[in-house]
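We recall that each integer encodes one residue's backbone shape. We quote one record:
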Amino acid sequence: MKKKNLTLAIVGITATAILTGCSSDTGKNPVDGMSEKEHQQKVEELLVEDANVDDVKASIKSMHDTMNGLVCYFKQYRMAGTDEAHYDASSINKHIEKVLPQVTDTNVKKDLLMLRWLITYYATYDHLNNEVTDEVANTGVWAHRIAHDLDYTLHKGGEGDYFGATFALEGEKSKAWKFIQSTDLVTEDELFSELSE
């Protein structure tokens, strides 16, 4: 009986993780096959010459951890527009402002700008006067997936799955970008206006 309950618990936890956007079987992160030296070189290519790599990695990890707490395990619907979402978005946006000047790679900058837009939209949604739609909940899910893939990439494989959410590794095939384009909530020019300054 104990073995059956344990098996059911494991299946339940796995199913919950998959259904909530905290897990997926979308593929293998391209950095997984790199040697440590190749990976370190790739990370350094993404950043300005005098960037503090450990500081950037810590900020990305913190953003990912915050997103895990905000939207995983069916919380993406009930957390949209809450005070906690506002607080977490503010924290994430501070990390983004800290990291952006240290990044040279345009695709990573796009990822950070997408993350900022998604989490800000999610956090400021008027959940008191409007039902939280799938589209709104998915802004939180895709913000999480960007943070996850960036964290996973900078820490070379880390734990977890790969969502294909970032420009950094997927280019125009970024699934987060495809989601944003499907919403008609923001234009490409609005989203990436900082890149043309």
Remarks:
- Residues 3-20 have pLDDT under 50 and may be disordered.
- Residues 2-196 form one domain.
- The radius of gyration is 17 Å.
